[in-house]
Design a protein that fits this description.
Shape: elongated
Helix content: 55-70%
Number of helices: 5
Distance between the termini: 83 Å
Largest sheet: 2 strands, antiparallel
Oligomer: single chain
Order of helices and strands: EEHHHHH
């Protein structure tokens, strides 16, 4: 079925169509949606490939400042060394868990549950998780994951602050 277009006004009674390379009628709307999908995919690719070093500096700086603050507080006897050691150990374990999950994702193998990654972050491994998200570019785009991750960071810091204020962290000495 072909539709004719009037020459002077460019209007037609039916949707305008073109002929494809195989001489099949094509609707402009369908063609435009395909072009739109291609543009969206191109933007996604550009976003993921354009992970500029500047975008990862702030989170990494936050991690370095936090760890340095923990070590400094331990040296000033404001915080037990065990707390700083716990954060460092859990951060390393969490970074490794992210690296294993990224490797499994690339190979199509069994993945680490998101709840496991969140639990590690909540327990104090969030600096390692943040480091992994930025250096490995893993779990750094999915908004729902990132939202829960930042809630675990806030919860962990609140518990740490409460422990420091009440003296509960002293039992780790």
């Amino acid at each position: 079925m072909t539709y004719k277009k009037t020459a002077k006004t460019g209007n037609s009674a039916s949707p305008q169509t073109n002929r494809s390379q195989k001489n099949r009628p094509q609707n402009h709307r369908a063609q435009n949606s395909r072009t739109q999908n291609h543009r969206t995919q191109s933007r996604r690719t550009q976003k993921s490939n354009s992970a500029a070093p500047d975008s990862s500096i702030m989170p990494l700086l936050l991690v370095v400042i936090f760890i340095a603050g923990l070590i400094g507080a331990a040296q000033q006897h404001m915080l037990p060394y065990g707390i700083a050691g716990m954060y460092l150990t859990l951060s390393l374990l969490t970074f490794i868990a992210y690296a294993i999950d990224k490797s499994a994702a690339k190979r199509g193998k069994w993945r680490t549950k998101e709840s496991t990654l969140h639990l590690l972050a909540l327990m104090g491994g969030w600096p390692g998780a943040l480091f992994a998200q930025n250096l490995l570019r893993h779990k750094s785009v999915k908004a729902s994951f990132r939202n829960v991750f930042w809630l675990t960071v806030v919860a962990n810091l609140a518990v740490l602050g409460y422990g420091i204020k009440t003296g509960a962290v002293d039992m780790f000495i």
